[in-house]
Amino acid sequence: MQRRDFLASATAVATFGGLTPLAAQSTRSLLEVAHQLAASPYVVPKSELPPPFAGLDYDAYRGIRPVAGRAAMLPHGADFAVDLLPPGLFFPDPVRIDRDAGTGPKEVPFALDLFSFQDRYFDTLPDEAPGAGFSGLRLRYPLNALDRMDEVLVVQGASYFRAIGQAMVYGLSARAVAIGTGGAGPEEFPRFTHLRLHAPQNGTVRLEAVIDSPSLAGHLDMTVRPGADTMMDLSVTLMPRVEIADIGVAPLTSMYLKGPLRASVSDDFRPRVHDSDLLVIENGAGERIWRPISNPARLETSAFVDNNPVSFGLFQTGRAFSDFEDTEARYHDRPNAIVRPRGTWGPGAVVLVEIPTGDEFMDNIVAFWRPEAALTPGSAHRFDYRLNWTVSPPGESAGADTIARILQSRSGREHDRPGTRRYVIDITGEAAGRVPEITAQGPAEISGVSLFDLPDQGGTRVTFLVTPENTDAVDLRLVVRNQPTGQSDAVWLHRWTRARDGGV
């Protein structure tokens, strides 16, 4: 829909195009709702959907469309619009949605006639669908052209949300909270039960959410500012019902199938297939840590111990079509997401979970902050942070940057030395005055270390060989130092894991 058509119809549909808000209107803040929920026993939601939303496959679910003016393209202030999303497929749990158009929050009632149903998937429709509700919402904004309302944010499924800025396509997601991710037991997925969209102010929109799960209740307060980079300021308050030691704060979820570090994982015409390929951490000690992502043969969890982290984020480093050769997925246009804590987060660790996958349809990468101390029942813990959705390389989105950047990481089997793997890491800047230091945690021989300038002032290349002994994993650490000061120029970390065929 063109933005000029949308604005022309704004007056006619300013009250949700015929939707009548419920007369009973809650005046309680959603934070208060969350506190009361935390003090109550957990109630298991009914997960069975009524017809016509039950038993849908992917294509049938996509055959349900919000009707423009009733559940789609609903004007929200002068520059925003909202779509309300139907239940079905992976989204059975109803989410209450309130909208504040400037006169206070009003609940939007769910009804079948808010949606159209493609005849090829739906022969007949019932008169109503008791127990069904919205599964989330989509926010629109003229990101790329003044006369077009582009998607900028989707909130749907458990406590997931994802956003984009200008000239981007959706890629990785964020969550309000994670529990048990990468652990020995089953993961718990807290869900949004109540969303409240506030009236826009100065080019921003505020969204609140109530979070619920067996282990905790919580509250999310998000202010979104769309633009070339889409910025979010978030406050997440978590109130455990039980002790939680394996909490994940500000979790980011992405996908990595293959890349230059282990191209043999997938026999595919594309050189890379991933939403993100790099975790970058700015720790409280002033180091910037570069950790390339991998698709291991078994689940791998890495913890980077820290105190008051400055930032952590998942990055997509390839930004040219030739990096991926995928005209449909447009992986080169997928955003990075950077978490910048505000206030004191104290001791803990940035945790990276890498899950084996054989295709590109599963999100198998998760990064989050885990506090050192467990969260205890009856307490409340608030985490404030900024989340930046950007295509800028690490450091550039934060302004001037004097620290060297890792340009790429590659590896491959050394065919004239069976059982050995060569690593190649390219760094910005000249080779003169630099010395590489490489260490291995785990039984392995490091050899063949060299450092030299790339052609055409393309940076510095460090290359070395790793020969693992009788082990399945080796943690590698490369520090490039400037001489004679000894100051660290870049810190590169990687976990080698044995390939699925048993080789290096």
SSE topology sketch:
Layout: H1 3-8, H2 30-38, H3 58-62, E1 64-66, E2 74-76, E3 80-85, E4 96-100, E5 105-107, E6 115-117, E7 136-141, E8 150-156, E9 160-163, E10 173-175, E11 177-179, E12 191-197, E13 205-212, E14 216-225, E15 230-240, E16 247-254, E17 256-258, E18 273-274, E19 278-282, E20 288-292, E21 300-307, E22 311-315, H4 321-324, E23 336-342, E24 347-354, E25 365-371, E26 381-390, E27 406-413, E28 421-427, E29 434-441, E30 444-453, E31 460-468, E32 473-482, E33 487-497
Parallel strand pairs: 4-12, 20-33
Antiparallel strand pairs: 1-6, 2-3, 3-7, 4-5, 7-8, 8-9, 9-10, 10-16, 11-16, 12-13, 13-14, 14-15, 15-26, 16-25, 17-18, 19-20, 19-22, 21-24, 22-23, 23-26, 24-25, 27-28, 28-31, 29-32, 30-31, 32-33
Model description:
It is a single chain. This protein is 5% helix and 42% strand. The chain folds into two domains: 3-398, Distorted Sandwich (Beta-galactosidase, Chain A, domain 5); 406-497, Sandwich (Immunoglobulin-like), CATH 2.60.40. It has a 14-stranded mixed β-sheet. The protein has helices at 3-8, 30-38, 58-62, 321-324, and strands at 64-66, 74-76, 80-85, 96-100, 105-107, 115-117, 136-141, 150-156, 160-163, 173-175, 177-179, 191-197, 205-212, 216-225, 230-240, 247-254, 256-258, 273-274, 278-282, 288-292, 300-307, 311-315, 336-342, 347-354, 365-371, 381-390, 406-413, 421-427, 434-441, 444-453, 460-468, 473-482, 487-497. With 504 residues, it is mainly β. The protein has four helices and 33 strands. Strand 4 and strand 5 form a beta hairpin.
